[in-house]
Amino acid sequence: MESKKRRRDSDQPTENEVDTSKPTAVFEAKEGRNYTLSIALPGSIIANAQTPELKTLLAGQIARALAVFCVDEVVVFDDGQATHFSETDNATSSTQKSRREDNSYTGYTDPNYFLAHILSYLETPPYLRKELFPLHPDFRLAGSLPSLDMPHHLRKHEWCRYREGITKREIPLREVRKIWTPPGHTYIETGLSTRIFIPAVIAPETRVTVKFENEEKPERIPGNELLAEAVAPSAPRVEAGYYWGYSVRSASCLSAVLTECPFDGGYDLTIGTSERGVPVSSLDSTKRSKSHPIPEFAHMMIVFGGVAGLEVAVRADKELEGLGVKSPEALFDRWVNLCPGQGSRTIRTEEAVWLGLMGVRDVVLRKGKR
Question: Which DSSP symbol is given to 264?
């Protein structure tokens, strides 16, 4: 018993030691941020994964990269290869083929949708997932997905001036056993024990971003009720500089990634990735004498190819075919190689995402318009 006690005591940091039991790299908002960082990748990478477990793991790896590097938007586009992989996969078992014919699980029937579905699920704060995502076969392995733990994934006891919530038609008051919502207001479920209302009527089951009046949590909350206001999902980023997760968009082809941009003015800096491009380090003029530096930008888009690269996406795009575009390089402001001198014949898309976001990290922080 004494030896066990001594071991427990020794686990406690002394005065001169660093306590590593809790993470210190917690995101801190400093100033408002206007620029955005977006990436696009094909859903066909899911079709190239053989089993449901690998498909789910792959989507989780992508989501982790989005969260770590503060990506604001991810676009899942169809490069025309998803069906090709499904039809030519001779190693698929008969059980898996029957699941492919069953429209309930989309990992085989619609890889583009599956990837977007999982990414949307992971971006949503855990306390809202049951409300926004009904039971679905795509989530049968959700327990194996990694935690993103982004700034808007707040715990019940944590306070932030902004918070994600979902509108509810009514709230139960257990004390009087009746249901009541103030006229002209909407109750918002935010994961807090305090009841939150906004002075507006919004349809039920709608995800909203709310903003509280106080920066710090009030010491006293009369009636355990607080009033907040509904704000744009971009408000935490623009007003206070918080990284507030990513939006998920689906595109029918490569050209739609660029033409259907949700930001005013479109993407003013686009980067395509290929082993035939210039080294990614050349984007930073401080690191190389012969460089291809990028200008200040408001909305950056980085596009990653699938197993066969962006070339196949161009060939499968009817819009680009009509315009006579044959090379993907012509679509982008910069055409970069993420890993010059690579030792493996191929770099997987999930690896390229990490390499690319790490490669442009310093440039994004310095050149993004505040």
Answer: T
Read off the tokens for 180.
């009541």
292, two tokens: 């291809």
Structure tokens at 297: 């930008």
Query: Contact 54/115 with Cβ under 8 angstroms?
Result: no
CB atoms within 10 A of CB 65: 21
> What average pLDDT does the chain have?
86
208, β-bridge pairs: 165
What distance separates the 2 farthest-apart alpha carbons in the chain?
80
User: Which tokens sit at 309?
Assistant: 């690269």
Locate 1 and state its tokens: 């018993």
SS (H, E, C) 186-209: EEEECCCCCEEEECCCCCCCCEEE
Cβ-in-10-Å burial (0-12, 13-18, 19+) of 170 comes to exposed
Q: Which two tokens stand for residue 136?
A: 């679905």
Q: Tokens 């029937």 appear where? A: 109
pLDDT tens by residue, 80-118: 987 655 554 444 444 444 443 444 899 999 999 999 999
Q: Is the pLDDT of residue 8 over 60?
A: no
- Sequence-ordered list of residues with C-beta below 8 angstroms from that of 342, at least 6 positions apart, any chain: 275
Does this model's pTM top 0.90? My answer is: no
Strand order in the sheet with 299-303: 247-251, 73-77, 36-42, 299-303, 269-279, 334-337
Report how many helices (DSSP H) and strands (DSSP E) the chain contains, helices first: 14, 13
- Residue found under tokens 């989780």: 60
pLDDT of 295: 87
Token couple for 211? 């903003």
